[in-house]
């Protein structure tokens, strides 16, 4: 466990949470749904906003900003609720997470734009892409940018990223989706990231 960290309440953070010992802890549709349901439940009591999210098989990414409560408190609620649910579903004993979550402050508009694209591209940046087309991956916020007619969860803000697109992109969510598909991004990650294939 790492020591308690100080957080800027006005910033977004790139949060990564990984399964213990490289194990998949989001391996079925039901697991993915339960994680999303967990976010909705926690958001109702501890409000936050997100610009992007992506659930993979053994980790997840959030680009999140707390609106009232410290990030530590929000993440504790999310991870505890999902862990209890997972243990009940699978009869699992012991911790399911590798360690405490990784969190990195993102302090610029360009950083948020780049980081959100990095998060959204996760399903096609694996050794074997998980989908042929990124809009077909249902466990991230990317399809909700690619098609604005799809309903978004209340914590997802689809109004900001498009405003920061560079020329020649239009300031629309469709253009943002094209931006994500056009550029391969990099980001600072948890030092343990290289241990994980997906």
How would the blueprint of this fold be written?
Elements: E1 12-18, H1 29-45, E2 48-55, E3 59-66, H2 71-90, E4 102-106, H3 109-120, H4 142-146, H5 173-182
Antiparallel strand pairs: 1-3, 1-4, 2-3
Helix pairs in contact: 1-2
Total helical segments: 5
What class do helices, strands and sheet pairing give? Answer: alpha+beta
Distance between the termini: 23 Å
How many separate domains make up the residues?
1
Assembly state (oligomeric)? single chain
- Tell me what portion of residues adopts beta-strand conformation: 5-15%
Helix and strand sequence: EHEEHEHHH
Shape: globular
Averaging pLDDT over every residue, what do you get? Answer: 90
Low-pLDDT segments: 190-198
What is the CATH first-level class name?
Answer: Alpha Beta
Q: What does this protein look like?
A:
It contains five helices and four strands. Helix content is 32%, strand content 14%. It has helices at 29-45, 71-90, 109-120, 142-146, 173-182; strands at residues 12-18, 48-55, 59-66, 102-106. The protein has a four-stranded antiparallel beta sheet with strand order 2-3-1-4, with helices on both faces. The chain is of the alpha+beta class and 198 residues long. Helix 1 runs antiparallel to helix 2. The radius of gyration is 16 Å and the shape is globular. Strand 2 (48-55) and strand 3 (59-66) form a beta hairpin. It has one domain (12-187): Alpha-Beta Plaits.
């Amino acid at each position: 466990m790492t020591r308690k960290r100080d957080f800027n309440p006005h910033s977004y953070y790139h949060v990564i949470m990984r399964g213990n010992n490289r194990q998949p802890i989001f391996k079925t549709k039901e697991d993915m749904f339960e994680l999303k349901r967990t976010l909705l439940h926690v958001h109702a009591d501890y409000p936050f906003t997100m610009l992007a999210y992506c659930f993979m098989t053994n980790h997840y990414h959030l680009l999140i900003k707390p609106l009232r409560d410290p990030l530590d408190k929000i993440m504790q609620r999310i991870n505890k609720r999902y862990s209890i649910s997972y243990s009940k579903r699978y009869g699992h004993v012991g911790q399911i997470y590798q360690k405490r979550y990784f969190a990195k402050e993102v302090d610029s508009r360009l950083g948020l734009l780049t980081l959100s694209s990095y998060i959204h591209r996760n399903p096609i940046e694996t050794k074997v892409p998980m989908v042929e087309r990124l809009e077909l991956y249902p466990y991230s916020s990317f399809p909700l940018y690619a098609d604005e007619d799809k309903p978004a969860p209340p914590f997802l803000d689809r109004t900001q990223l498009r405003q920061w697109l560079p020329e020649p992109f239009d300031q629309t969510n469709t253009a943002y989706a094209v931006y994500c598909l056009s550029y391969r991004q990099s980001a600072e990650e948890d030092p343990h990231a290289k241990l994980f294939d997906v």
